[in-house]
Structures are given as C-alpha cells and as structure tokens.
C-alpha cells in the first residue's frame, strides 16, 4: 500500500471537482444552503460533506476507499486491523467492552477510567472489579496499575474476561504495559487499552511506546486529541485473536452514527498520512518548541512543572503535556487557569493544584512565547509573601482518594437507583452512606464515586474541596454538589453496597 495516498480524502476531492447535482442528503447541498455569514469559515468543509453515494464507500460496510484508508491506518499504527471512529474514543471503549463482556460477566478495570467505560459496563450489563492505580509521590498524580495489583485481581477473580487500562493519563503520565499484557495473556484474557491521549506514541524516540507495541489486544485512540484530526475523530486498533472482530464490527455499528461525517473521516485519513510519511520529523519540529519552553519554565523560580526525573514513579511522560502549578500554594489550579485565560492562553483543564496545557506537534514558538509572557505577568501580580491558599493544604488529601481492589460491582442496570429508594443528603453528611449516582469532576471525566459504593470521609473531603474551588461535576443530580443522591434503604439497590477490601 502507498503510504503517501489519502484515498478517502482524494476521492472526496475528486467527487467535488465533478460538480455533480446533489439529489441526496445532506440538505445544505455541498454548502449551497449554508448561512452566508459562515461561508468564509465553513464553506470549503461543507463542499466535502456528503453521504454514502456511489464511489464514496460506507463506514459500516467498507469495500472501497474507506476500507483502503483503514488498512493504511493499520499499517501506520502497527495493527492487524483498524477502524475509524466518528463518535470519539467513547465509541471505541463501548465497542470493546460490549465485545468482551456478556451480561453478568466480569471485567478488571483500572479505577481511574473515563466515564465512557462505566457506560460501556452498563450497556453490557457486566460486572467490574476496580483496581487501585499507582500513585506518583513527586506529583501527587495517579497512573496505571501495578503488576502486583493485577496478579491479586486475577487470583481472586479467575473468571475475569479481560483487563481494561487507561494509558497514558490525561496528564501524560505513562506506564510500561508490556508485563501487564503478558500477565493478561498468561491467563487467557485480552488487554484493552484506552490510549485516547497517546495516538502519537511510538513515532519518536522521545515519546513513550504505543500500547500496541507493548502487546495490547485492542487499543482506542483519539486521533483528534494529540494529532490533527477533527474533534470526535478516533481509531480502534486490533491485533491477535483474543478479541472477536466480528463482534467489534457489529458493536461499532451499534454505537456509531449511521450517518458518519465524511469531513471527519477525511481528516483521519489525512492525519494518518502526515504521521505515516513525516512522523518522526513532524513530531521533532513540535518537540523543539517544547524543549525550549520547558527549559525556560524550569528557570522560573516561582513555577513548578511535572517533569520526568529520578523522583518520578511512572515510566514515561508525554513531553507535549505541560502540567504547571505556582509554588507556595498561592493559587489553586482553577485560579491559575482563569489568570492564564485572561492573558489569552486557553488551558485544557485545571484541578485543585495544577493547570494542564496540551501542546502538540502543531504548537508554535509564538504560542510558547505567549505562555511565558503570561507566566511572567502572573508572577509579578502574585507577590511571594501572598497568604497561602488554605484549601490547597487543608481540604485536599496528600494522597489520592481511590479505593483498593473492590468486590465485584454490578452494572446490570443502566439507571442508578432505578429499583432503590434514594434521597438527597448534604455532601458533608454522606460519610458511610451508599452512593446512588456517579460523581464526575470534569474534565478529566474520571468518576470519583460510582453508584453502589460506600462513601468514605476522605472522598467527602476531596469532593468538598473541588466543589469549593469551582470544579464542575457531571453525573450528579445537583451540579453544585451541595447534596448527593444516596441509597435510602440499604443493600437492595442496582449496585448493592460493597465493602472494599484488599486481597
């Protein structure tokens, strides 16, 4: 196959140049019906926004240019088979879980997963055993799971159908998955990896290895996050025979739109071609900007940046992720994010301590200089003797609030509390009660509480701290998190209360 081709994009351009009369959807008719106010921004994209007409193939039954584009993607990323995702990594996570777990079957799941994984478990009617993540003492952030944790889980739950991990984290912390893949395979189960933030991994010596190269069986990537596809563009890669490919194809048809966006799919094709033909050179151009930016931040005495050094517990760090905080607890991450935005620098997200800045191979020196100017300005505004933000040292635990290896939690019903009486209780009064809803600080979209879990005092403390600093929450009926929905009548809910235990 010719890696220099972008077969789907090329065919779309060829079709556009034929200037055919459109008697098919979409209704804007190659952009002719577009609001004139948007012409300069959306016009050229709308000209390529077509549907499954002759010659343009069908994502759900690919036989032509989409099949060829997906085959080139597999070649590029080292997979045996690859699938385009038009509903983001969410669709890939759902399809993986639905293809591995039948109702009532059990999946070993890293606790720090995206909310789509929980939705996948609910759709599958599966059960999950949650694995405690590793903790990096230097940064206070979590990553991966240890081999020992997985060994304990496999010994306790030999009936598990698969191991589901997230790598890298939102913050770019990465673990070596090689031993975990071998361990899963030695027990006859597949390793499923949400690699949403690692589509660029393995294409440059300074980047961590890809999950596929470590032996993962099924890997989901958000091509739009760190590469150059349009938002919602992703890929699902497969290798080996441990995941049923017929079920993957079927379930992708279930969870993905029947009207996939052709501009989005073309952007996946083009992003692959860039990586396939210029990969290391292309990434190096972005890394040059980041190396200089990191050097200059290290020389700024008021700023602390997560770096891969001797004190770090994780095996690798994505150099395109900049995680910053101001020394001395003078600003929370949320406050720092607001100040950066006031300077015209839009961060990816913030938490109680840090701001996360997502750079990429497209980040320019001019943008890096603008960030440095903003940091210098904030330094001048925040006097070194400013009173410490007490919330950073009093309300937030020094260690993350994550439960140890859990007993199986059933996701057999998709509606929390559907067969249980629930009531709202003030957050501060919820210690010891059983959650009847999922609570997800967003971003990064990682659930802190699952329905059916016993609420600990430490979890209440963390949630209160996040709430008081302006974090946003999804899943909770009360978005301000003044109250939580809890089970009123005890152990008869759709996720019966469990007692977390260490095995």
Automatic annotation (TrEMBL):
Query: Which cofactor does the UniProt annotation name?
Result: pyridoxal 5'-phosphate
- Which residue range or ranges hold the Orn/Lys/Arg decarboxylases family 1 pyridoxal-P attachment site domain? 7-306
Q: Quote one Gene Ontology molecular function term.
A: transaminase activity
Alphabetical keyword list: Aminotransferase, Decarboxylase, Lyase, Pyridoxal phosphate, Transferase
**Which residue range or ranges hold the Orn/Lys/Arg decarboxylase C-terminal domain?**
419-460
What family does this chain come from, according to its entry? Belongs to the Orn/Lys/Arg decarboxylase class-I family.
Domain of life, source organism:
Bacteria
Return the InterPro entries for the record.
Orn/Lys/Arg_deCO2ase_major_dom, Orn_Lys_Arg_decarboxylase-I, Prn/Lys/Arg_de-COase_C, Prn/Lys/Arg_de-COase_C_sf, PyrdxlP-dep_Trfase, PyrdxlP-dep_Trfase_major
What this protein is called in its record is Aminotransferase class I/II-fold pyridoxal phosphate-dependent enzyme
Please provide an example of a Pfam family that matches this protein in its UniProt record.
OKR_DC_1
Protein species of origin? Paenibacillus aurantius
């Amino acid at each position: 196959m010719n890696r220099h081709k972008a077969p789907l994009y090329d065919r779309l351009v060829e079709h556009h140049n034929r200037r055919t009369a459109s008697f098919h959807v979409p209704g804007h008719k190659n952009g002719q019906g577009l609001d004139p106010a948007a012409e300069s921004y959306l016009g050229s994209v709308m000209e390529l926004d077509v549907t499954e007409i002759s010659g343009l193939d069908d994502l759900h039954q690919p036989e032509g240019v989409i099949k060829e584009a997906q085959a080139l993607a597999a070649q590029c990323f080292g997979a045996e088979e690859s699938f385009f995702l038009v509903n983001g990594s969410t669709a890939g996570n759902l399809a993986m879980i639905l293809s591995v777990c039948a109702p009532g079957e059990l999946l070993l799941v890293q606790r720090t997963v995206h909310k789509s994984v929980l939705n996948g478990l609910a759709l599958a009617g599966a059960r999950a055993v949650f694995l405690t993540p590793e903790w990096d003492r230097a940064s206070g952030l979590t990553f991966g799971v240890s081999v020992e944790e997985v060994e304990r889980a496999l010994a306790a739950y030999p009936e598990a159908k698969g191991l589901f991990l997230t790598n890298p984290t939102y913050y770019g912390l990465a673990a070596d998955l090689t031993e975990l893949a071998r361990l899963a395979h030695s027990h006859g189960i597949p390793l499923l990896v949400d690699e949403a933030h690692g589509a660029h991994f393995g294409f440059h010596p300074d980047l961590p290895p890809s999950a596929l190269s470590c032996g993962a069986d099924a890997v989901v990537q958000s091509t739009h996050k760190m590469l150059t596809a349009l938002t919602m563009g992703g890929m699902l890669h497969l290798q080996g025979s441990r995941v049923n490919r017929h079920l993957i194809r079927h379930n992708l048809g279930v969870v993905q739109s029947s009207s996939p966006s052709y501009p989005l799919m073309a952007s996946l094709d083009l992003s692959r071609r860039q990586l396939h033909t210029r990969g290391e050179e292309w990434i190096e151009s972005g890394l040059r900007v980041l190396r200089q930016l990191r050097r200059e931040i290290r020389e700024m005495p008021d700023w602390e940046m997560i770096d891969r050094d001797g004190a770090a517990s994780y095996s690798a760090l994505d150099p395109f992720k900049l995680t910053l905080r101001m020394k001395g607890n003078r600003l929370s991450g949320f406050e720092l994010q607001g100040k950066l935005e006031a300077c015209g620098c839009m961060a990816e997200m913030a938490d109680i301590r840090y701001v996360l800045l997502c750079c990429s191979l497209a980040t320019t020196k001019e943008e890096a200089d603008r960030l440095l100017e903003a940091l210098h300005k904030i330094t001048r505004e925040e006097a070194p003797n400013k009173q410490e933000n007490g919330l950073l040292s009093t309300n937030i635990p020094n260690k993350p609030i994550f439960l140890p290896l859990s007993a199986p939690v059933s996701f057999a019903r998709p509606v929390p509390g559907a067969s249980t009486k629930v009531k709202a209780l003030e957050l501060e009064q919820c210690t010891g009660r059983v959650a009847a809803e999922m609570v997800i600080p967003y971003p990064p979209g990682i659930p802190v509480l699952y329905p059916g879990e016993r609420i600990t005092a430490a979890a209440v403390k963390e949630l209160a701290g996040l709430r008081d600093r302006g974090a946003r929450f999804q899943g909770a009926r009360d978005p301000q998190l003044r109250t939580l929905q809890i089970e009123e009548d005890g152990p008869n809910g759709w996720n019966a209360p469990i007692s977390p235990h260490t095995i």
